[in-house]
Known about the structure:
It comes from Nakamurella flava. Keywords: NAD, Oxidoreductase. The chain is an alpha/beta fold and about 350 residues long. It contains ten helices and 13 strands. It has one domain: 3-Layer(aba) Sandwich (Rossmann fold). It has a seven-stranded parallel sheet, sandwiched between helices. Helix 3 runs parallel beside helix 4.
Amino acid sequence: xxxxxxxxxxxxxxxxxxxxxxxxxxxxxxxxxxxxxxxxxxxxxxxxxxxxxxxxxxxxxxxxxxxxxxxxxxxxxxxxxxxxxxxxxxxxxxxxxxxxxxxxxxxxxxxxxxxxxxxxxxxxxxxxxxxxxxxxxxxxxxxxxxxxxxxxxxxxxxxxxxxxxxxxxxxxxxxxxxxxxxxxxxxxxxxxxxxxxxxxxxxxxxxxxxxxxxxxxxxxxxxxxxxxxxxxxxxxxxxxxxxxxxxxxxxxxxxxxxxxxxxxxxxxxxxxxxxxxxxxxxxxxxxxxxxxxxxxxxxxxxxxxxxxxxxxxxxxxxxxxxxxxxxxxxxxxxxxxxxxxxxxxxxxxxx
Length: 351
């Protein structure tokens, strides 16, 4: 069990100890009330071929990649989304509706072996705080409730690297140390991060109360980094470094290609994990040209740091490797090494 570590705050003369921390006993025996004797959390799919899988938000960036991956692996996929994308993935069953509509969700979940829940509002620029929280937190609760009622074998849900609250926090907070992991104490200051923490809490409750097998994935910055030879992603990270360097430091300059995000999601369907906290998934190297030690010395000089080799991300990915057997395969430097961002030039013109 991890110790409670103080939060580092830039420019502040104090630290504090947050009170909230997820803990999960992986060996705990869970009971489904009214459904027979005790059951262990053992609902991981034995294989994807032939499995009936509902993907909510299946026409979004990550969702479309997940659907493509699952179809290629032989799964029978149903997509639930608010509207059909301009160029949707073919060969799947499609339903239109909102995950905040209980009847729509119940109909979509019925008869499924597994659910991949990706629907929601991704970030603070997708509506007001109440809309973001409602769609993300209530939508997830209804999907989990329907999955438990329908005796779905496995649920994989989208959490976020923002679930611990630091990156989007309005105050100049930083992690308590580097590398940080899923046990980093939370400091929530926005509706989006709060919704993601609420989703992990809901997952833990359903796992304990219903025996529902679940995996949360804390996705970082996810993009198609091969788009236009990597130029689109290159411009994005340079703009991010200019506009909010503290946020990038909190996220450890992490990223994940959308195809790797799909692979991690598929792996979660076939592996048994605790329901929470969500598992950090990311490429193991940063998008920076400088070493991570140099980046931390510049942007987090007061935060204790362990030995982090080369450009390795200052975020622990042990749980992704051990629980999901997942390793990212797409790296920015393999697309184009010139796209790696230089901290000295981050404030200059886009490439």
